[in-house]
Task: structure prediction
Amino acid sequence: MGCQSEVYLGDWLTFTICTHDPDTGESMDAGAPPTYRVYEDETGAAIMSGTMTLLDDPNTVGFYSERVECSLAHGFEAGRSYNVYIRAVVDAHPGAISYGFRALESLPYAVWNYAPRTLTQSAAAILSAVSGSDITFTRGVKNVITLTGLTFDPTRTYAYFSMKIDQEDLDTESIVMIREGAGGLLTLNGAPGAATQGTLVVAGVAPNQAATVTLKGLASSCLLVRAGLVYGLKQIVPAEPDPYMVTYGAAAVAYDIPRAIT
Result:
């Protein structure tokens, strides 16, 4: 039984189930093709429904699959969560299972169709610095991302950068969280990070200051390729009761090409 946890908008998603004899637990075909219904978040009306078919029937028993197109035309939206409800009847005994997955913005669209930004690149650089409001990390290499035109409070205790799947995620659930100064990489994929693997440096004079976020290759190699992410750059100021935003935007993680260099 299985279903991928994420799918890019416009791509296909495949899910499978195995049916069993309710008395012995051995593999057994269902009395009729299992049915499925796909729901968005907690919306009561299914956006898609149908029946599953046996896969490789001569060599398997009770193994069913279905492949659906997760496109706008079929009611899917980027950033939404979906649940697949599957029901089968085996030897007159009904049973059900459900899977959950998330639809992500198409990677090429997400990377290249955001608001305009300035991209600079040199042959000696492992990764170019990006100046603008939307950013892309590349997996498996050293990332140096520069955000410009910013204003920081000179009395701040520190600033910190975080990249998340959803704006409502806790800081401890961040994909990447880096603190200015000695803090370094605080969080990587929702777990404590190695401080030396990340830095956040603020330079310049307001209102044209720059914040440079560096994530080293060892840490970035642990990232999953995905789009539809969000990031924020905040600062802690002693006179303010809460941290406040310096800038924010959309983010993505792209494939590394080549995959290994020695």
Observations:
- The first strand starts at residue 2 and ends at 3.
- The two ends are 39 Å apart (CA to CA).
